[in-house]
Structures are given as structure tokens and as C-alpha cells.
Fold:
Amino acid sequence: MRHPAVPTTRFYQRCGIRDADLRRGYEACRRATRTQGEIEYAVSLLMPPPLRIATWALLGAGYCVDNLVDAADAPGGEIGSTGEAGPGRAERLEAWISAFEADLRDGRGTDPVRKALIHTMLTWNVPPGFLHTQFEELRQDVHGKQCATWQEWRRNSQLIVVPFALRAASLLLRAAGLSAEPEAIAAGVPEAAMAWQTAADAVYLTDSLVDLSDDLDRDHVPLPQEALDEAGVRRVDLLARRATPAFEDMVRHLADRARTCLDRAPLPRVLHPAVSIAFDTYTDLYRLCLKTVADAPAALLHRRPALPRSARLRLLLPARAKAALAWGLFPFPIQPGPPPDPVPVGAPGKLGLAEEVRPLAAQRRPIVPPTPHPSGARPPKLTAEAMPRHVAIVMDGNGRWATNRGLARSDGHRAGGEALVDVVHGALEIGLKHLTVYAFSTENWKRPADELLALMDEIPKGLRRLANDTEPLGVRVRWAGVRARLPADVTEALEDAERATRDHTGLTLTLCVNYGGRTEIATAAAKLARDAVARRIDPGSVSEHAFSRYLHVPELPDVDLLLRTGGDQRTSNFLPWQATYAELLFLDTPWPDVDRRDLWHAMEQYARRARRYGSVPRIPAQPTTLTGLH
Ligand code: IPE
Ligand code: IPE
Ligand code: MG
Structure:
């Protein structure tokens, strides 16, 4: 297998790429991957060409956007800057993401990098949700938020690195002729999911060390404050790039920690030998990188460490030879059938990439913006720091609302459904990522039969109305709860909504229907016990994270703000695992009278709370609201 330093036009033609702009896009992604993801680039060279360029596009586009956003005066106005006192980094990033989303809907890229990324996504049918995780990473990077605790840091790893690693792995598995989706690995083989998590933590930690000097350039410390405190390293010393003994000890300790994670994460054995070679090379290169880091900790303060050339080649040359042999013996089994090159924008009578070849984008209805509130109210602007990621609501008070109006309780439930639609619009307007609502609890079966009948009649109807109203907004629906006792049309409506919206990225709306917190924990414990008996999991390795993989919706982040309407001040068995550190807020308003303005107001109150997580405040209070737009 030859690896030309710069791939030729013929190389790209063999991958089905003839359009010059598209080739330029792939080249930009390749160059960015080579400089910013040295290890990933080296591993990409062990792949057959179609998979190699896909890796460049998926990884490199992120790096390209990062660089463009970083450039104080991005040229050409593509990112929205004119070179004068243009928009800030965050605005430039949002402008790029919006342009990308518009391009993806049309199936054509309006700049070379977007073209390459969209081409790869359509070719490999990569769901847009995958990119969402990468955008989140970029957003966090732009805001340069320092985590206070390891827990917070791990949460970033879980939310960002793992989904990304899983998706990248799924491309490899597909290459090996396995059609395993990462979500399936995560749900069906918890042991594999945990191995991924541990490996991803190691990669994330290594990258945090390797990128230290770049981050310090931006006054950002990529390690949790807790790590600095434990090691006795002062932030001021770091920012001044003072290589104290405490700093050197900390780096060696963290490198050791990352290495232990790598050793503890035996990646799943896959069938295709070349894929195993790639996995092994990847982890070996990370080990080499950690050794380089630990050998010269002080250098990290000034530059990214380069892998020593001879050691790198000692690993890579045999890996390349073995991979070439393996691909030769077991040829690349999948012809992804790259879509034809995009037609020039505006070419008469021609369809875009998506309409022509892939149902992915063509079948999706265009995402529409949320409808403004009739009062004209606009959401307050919260700083990124003050913005909750996950709001959970106990939608209580439907029955009393109806009774007070001389109506049937079922009328209250219907009115409650309408309130939820408005709140979802408001959540989208303010940019909330996760909204979870309590719609029916496992305790609610104690209600009179006529109310239960009315509720079981109303839930699927309400759900279809909700799905119809919110689907065009790009809302992803999830169901948390148990099947037992629910009529089939209710479970079908929930599962249909989940399926129809699984690629949506705007807001994740988790509906807790037939949900009970203790049931959720007991069910998770039972599954875990079964896995332990079957030796699929080692009881000694059960951590909080390992346990959470067994919950109804493992990806559900911790609740930041838990809101209950209707006047009662209790949580009624709602999300006990996820809401242990949530800020609680109780409103007297019955749920049917609530609208998006109450959500926004609650979020403003949340923004003023000081969250300490058992620690003491380190950072002086920041302004939480940018502008009140009410
Ligand atoms: C919450 O409203 C909705 C469900 C539990 C289904 P309620 O029905 O509990 O209303 P109140 O608390 O009786 O007013
Ligand atoms: C909690 O409300 C459950 C839902 C909102 C679905 P309940 O009305 O059932 O709770 P309690 O009975 O007041 O605790
Ligand atoms: Mg109630």
C-alpha cells in the first residue's frame, strides 16, 4: 500500500471524486487532520481509500471549522466576518453551523469543506446527529469553559467524545462487513460500551494534555480545577507557563491515569483483521504519545508534543504492511457507492446531491424555526455558563385546573398537552438541548378507572399532535418508562415518534410515560445482575457511569433544573438518579396555564443559583444574562 504525501487527482478519482471543489474540500480536511490529529491521520492511512477520505472529512471538517472560527479575521466573509471588528468566535461558529445545516438540507455544500462533509455523510448515510456532537465540542471549545470537577469533565467526555468515537467505530465496523450501529453496541453490549467509554476517556485526557499550549494561548485550562487542586498546581502559574515541580508531577500522574484507562479498555474484537490492526495501532500510538508527554512535561506548556519519528515508524511501518496484507486477503467488502459529484449551484433542471442519490436528506422535511409567542415575548439571552443543559418538568395540576373550571379532569390533560407544545417552542427559541417531562407515573395507575381510560385515550392522541407540531422543528423524541400495563397503541405511538425523529438534533424531548424512578433503578440493577451472572460484566468494575448505562435512556444527561408546576413541592419519584444535583424550582401555576415565558423565567432564576457540587465557590459570580429581551 503506497501512501503518497499528497494524494493525486487519480487517487480521488478512484474514490469517485471528480469535482475539483469537492476534491479541494477533502484536501483541506486531510491537511487539518494531519496537523491536528496526527494519530487519527496515521490510522486513516491504514484504511482503504474510500474509508480513508471519509475519516478525513468527519474529523478534518471539525478542525477546519475550529481554525476558521479561531481566525480573528476569517477571509472571504464565508464565516460571517468581514475582517473588520466582525462577529466573535461564538457567532462565527453559529454562522458556520447554520450554513452547514442549510446546505445539508439542500444536499449541496456552498464551500469546499462543507461539500466534502456532506458528501461523506450522504455516501455513508451518517446521521446528522453525529455532527451535532462534534458541534457541541466546538461550542464548548469556543466558550473555553473550565470544568470544576472530574465528574463534569467526564460528562463532556461521555456526551461528546464517546458518541463521536462510537460513530467513527461504526464506520470501521461497516468496513468489516458488520452493520453494527454504535447505539446498538451501546444498548446491546454494555461491556463493549464501557470499553469505549474508558478508551474515550483516555483519548480525551491525552488530547487535553497534548493541546495544553494551544488552549493556554486562549487563556483556557482544559483540565478540571479539581485536578489542579489535587496536584497543588495554580492556574496563574499555568497561564504564565511556569513549569513548577507540581505541574510536572501532575502531568506524569495524568499520563499514567490515561495509560491505565487504555490498558483497562480492551476494545471489542472485530471480525476483519485489518480493523483489529487499526484499533491496536491507534491505542499503541496513544501509548507512545503518553510516554512522550510524561518524558518532557514542561514542553507541553509551549508546544504540542510531536511523536518521536523513529518510534512512530517502528509502530506504523509493520502496521501498514500488515493492514495492506489483510485488506489484500479480505478485500474491502463495501462499495459505498459515492453519490455523483454535486452539480454547480443553480444548474438548471438538476437536483442536489441529496435528492439525486440518498433518501437521507431528501425525505426529511425542512426544519422550520419555532413559532414566536403570540405576546411577542422573546427569550432572555443567558450566557453559555448560565444556560442549563437539561430541564426536567413535573407537569402537575391538570386535574385541579379542570375541576376549578367545572370541566372533566381529562379536559385538563388535553389542555396540558397544548401547554407542552408552547413550552417546546420556547425551549427551542432559547436554545435548550434537553427537555424531559413527566407525563404519567407508575404510581398514576392508582387513579380511578375512568380517568385512566381517558388518559390512555389521550396520551397517543396528544403524542401524535405533539409529534406533528414539533417534528418540523427538528425535535428528537425519546421515551423513558416501562411497557408493563400500557396499551399497545400508546407504546406504538411512543416508538413511532422515537423512530421518526431519531436523526433530529434541535432539542431532545424525553417523555416520561409509565415512568417511575425506583422502577428505573431496580430494572437497571436487575439487568446488571443478569450481566454479572453471565460474566458479561465484572462486579468490581461497576461504577456510577457503568451503572447509568443500564438506565432507560442512558444518554440522558444529569438534570440541571427540575421544575414542578401545580403548587406541590415534591418530586414524586421523578428522575432520582439523574436529578441528584438538580436545582429545584416550584411554581404554583397549574400546568395548563404554563407557557414558554414561565420556562424562560425559571431558567433565569436558575442562572442566578450558585452550584457548588459540595465544593466551595472558586470563580467569582459572572454576569448571567447578556440582555433582557422581554
Ligand atoms: C398531572 O396532573 C398529569 C398526570 C398525573 C397525568 P394531575 O392529574 O396530577 O393534576 P392534579 O395534581 O390532580 O391537579
Ligand atoms: C406527578 O404528579 C406525576 C406526573 C405529573 C405525571 P402526581 O400528581 O401524580 O404526583 P403526586 O400524586 O401529587 O405526588
Ligand atoms: Mg397531580
In short: The pocket of IPE (ligand 1) is lined by residues 395-400, 413, 440, 444, 455, 566 (CB under 6 Å).
